[in-house]
């Protein structure tokens, strides 16, 4: 019998870390789709979604009636079958989950894309995923004009757009969900192993890839979220600021919250005033966000608290990057009645991986949290493949019920990321401490190689952010024929600051080994980040090297 250290979760006989949290349960019935699983959960909730700007509400009955009507129409009138891919190009909307759930209930596969993406980026995704149908809003129609896809408009009048010969507007969502579901429609058998979503990974270090997630992956995600927030113990109100097309938004809102009877207030796009007034107006208790928004809440706390009543807010959920001690304590000082909870996950793990589930855990500064329920981990030396015990840094490998099936039409990328034994190589350099807390050191692919030394950008960024005149920073590898690469910093000065390049380089040089010194500085108005708050280093590398 293998011995597992109860404190760290580490088992020396197989070099594996096991979650210390209570395991999740998955349905024994293999022939169940995630939509049926969510809709069959008992709860006493009444209002499912509220549109923050219009005040329009969808009750749980409204949602499930709309899902059934849309699924019926897609199946009977449009021939959508198991395995068909459907594109959803839309900002956050109370109808976003309805579309996802209807498509998945048929065994169809939902692929989402960022409304801010360019036409060529969306075109690449369409070419790769081969959807048979698209849902979008009138304002975004120009971005898919050349695709020749049949389109259902989420809002707007179909007649106004039929003049464009390259687009086939075949209906509006509002009309379709008002139709009575067909009494007879083809009901295909959908299993937990069938593909449910095809989300594209953020591509912070390279080209974006289609991540294949099964119904089982999403059911595991739902069970983890409901258990983590103890949502079965009473109705809560969540503010939806994070994008629903991203795994973070989809995880929390299209599935996890709907399964528990909680209410979600949906913001179509992030605006600080609208977010704060929605907390005030709807007495929201949970606020999921990314670290830059949390920093803004700290920096503007005085003005915010004069203008808005945030007394209902009990939990802030932060994901995308670990929070520093300064940010954590700064927030708790300004908002003493609010808990900070953090999470770590990837598109490839259905947004699940590790989390802090209490304020005490979040005060383990810099941690991504402890392993999520039913999740296993290894810390592996990228060079030798040796698996490490506690407090040694290597690549984090994860295995569990929420890990993806693979990358779409990309066997090479799948083989290099997902082992035949189910281990996902995350590409994150981490260590796990003696209490089972995971600390992310950096992205493996983002390490700067200076004369053979490895320099983690995140370490230098954390140091730069301690400077009183710096509001944000990013560090990238800059190519050099003599040393290979050296660290270059992009800096956002605080308002009124005139700090110089040399002052920044001196500040870092006094606190790090010589090979970690910043050797080039550029000042920018803002650091480019993806929707989950991760720095888009590839964009900065392109900016830095385009003049070479």
Automatic annotation (TrEMBL):
Stretches assigned to the AMP-dependent synthetase/ligase domain: 41-408
One GO CC annotation: peroxisome
MF terms in GO: (E)-caffeate-CoA ligase activity; ATP binding; trans-feruloyl-CoA synthase activity
Pathway participation: Phytoalexin biosynthesis; 3,4',5-trihydroxystilbene biosynthesis; 3,4',5-trihydroxystilbene from trans-4-coumarate: step 1/2
Signal peptide, first to last residue: none
Domain AMP-binding enzyme C-terminal: 459-534
Source organism superkingdom: Eukaryota
A GO biological process held by the record: phenylpropanoid metabolic process
InterPro entries recorded: AMP-bd_C, AMP-bd_C_sf, AMP-binding_CS, AMP-dep_synth/lig_dom, ANL_N_sf
Transmembrane portions of the chain: 94-116, 245-266, 286-304
Pfam families according to UniProt: AMP-binding, AMP-binding_C
Keywords assigned by UniProt, alphabetized: ATP-binding, Ligase, Membrane, Nucleotide-binding, Phenylpropanoid metabolism, Transmembrane, Transmembrane helix
Keyword set includes ATP-binding: yes
Protein family membership: Belongs to the ATP-dependent AMP-binding enzyme family.
Protein name in the entry: 4-coumarate--CoA ligase-like 4
Native organism taxonomy: Eukaryota, Viridiplantae, Streptophyta, Embryophyta, Tracheophyta
């Amino acid at each position: 019998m293998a011995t597992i250290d109860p404190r760290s979760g580490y088992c020396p006989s197989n070099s594996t870390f096991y979650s210390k949290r209570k395991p999740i349960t998955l349905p024994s019935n293999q022939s169940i789709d995630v939509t049926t699983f969510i809709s069959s959960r008992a709860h006493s909730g009444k209002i499912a979604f509220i549109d923050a700007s219009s005040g329009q509400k969808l009750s749980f009955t409204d949602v499930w009636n709309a899902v059934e009507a849309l699924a019926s129409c897609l199946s009977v009138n449009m021939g959508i079958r198991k395995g068909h891919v459907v594109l959803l190009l839309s900002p956050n909307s109370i109808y976003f989950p309805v579309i996802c759930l209807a498509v998945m209930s048929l065994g169809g596969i939902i692929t989402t894309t960022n409304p801010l993406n360019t036409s060529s980026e969306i075109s690449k995704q369409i070419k790769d995923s081969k959807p048979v149908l698209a849902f979008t809003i009138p304002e975004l129609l120009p971005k898919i004009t050349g695709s020749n896809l049949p389109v259902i408009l989420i809002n707007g009048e179909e007649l106004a757009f039929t003049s464009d010969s390259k687009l086939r507007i075949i209906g509006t969502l509002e009309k379709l969900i008002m139709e009575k579901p067909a009494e007879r429609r083809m009901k295909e058998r959908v299993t937990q192993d069938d593909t449910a979503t095809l989300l594209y990974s953020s591509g912070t270090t390279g080209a974006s890839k289609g991540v294949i997630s099964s119904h089982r992956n999403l059911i595991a995600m739902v069970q983890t979220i409901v258990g983590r927030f103890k949502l079965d113990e009473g109705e809560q109100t969540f503010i939806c600021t994070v994008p629903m097309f991203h795994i973070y938004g989809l995880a929390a809102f299209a599935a996890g919250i709907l399964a528990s009877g909680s209410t979600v207030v949906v913001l179509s796009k992030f605006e600080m005033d609208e977010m704060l007034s929605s907390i005030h107006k709807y007495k929201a208790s949970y606020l999921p966000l990314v670290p830059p928004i949390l920093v803004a809440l700290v920096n503007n706390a005085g003005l915010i608290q004069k203008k808005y009543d945030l007394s209902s807010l009990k939990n802030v959920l932060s994901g995308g990057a670990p929070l520093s001690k300064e940010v954590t304590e700064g927030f708790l000082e300004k908002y003493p009645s609010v808990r900070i909870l953090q999470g770590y996950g990837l598109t490839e793990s259905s947004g699940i991986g590790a989390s802090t589930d209490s304020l005490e855990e979040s005060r383990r500064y810099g941690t991504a949290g402890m392993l999520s329920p039913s999740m296993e981990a290894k810390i592996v030396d990228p060079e030798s493949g040796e698996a490490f015990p506690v407090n040694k840094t290597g690549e984090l490998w994860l295995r569990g019920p929420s890990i993806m099936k693979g990358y779409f039409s990309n066997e090479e990328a799948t083989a290099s990321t997902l082992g035949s034994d189910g281990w996902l190589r995350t590409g994150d350099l981490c260590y796990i401490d003696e209490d089972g807390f995971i600390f992310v050191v950096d992205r493996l692919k983002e390490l700067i190689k200076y004369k053979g030394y490895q320099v983690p950008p995140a370490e230098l960024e954390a140091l730069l952010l301690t400077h009183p005149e710096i509001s944000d920073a990013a560090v990238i590898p800059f190519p050099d024929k003599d040393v290979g690469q050296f660290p270059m910093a992009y800096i956002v000065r605080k308002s009124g600051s005139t700090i110089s390049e040399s002052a920044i380089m001196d500040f870092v040089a006094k606190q790090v080994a010589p090979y970690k010194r910043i050797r080039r500085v550029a000042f920018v108005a803002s650091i480019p980040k993806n929707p989950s708050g991760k720095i888009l280093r590839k964009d900065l590398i392109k900016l830095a090297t385009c003049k070479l």
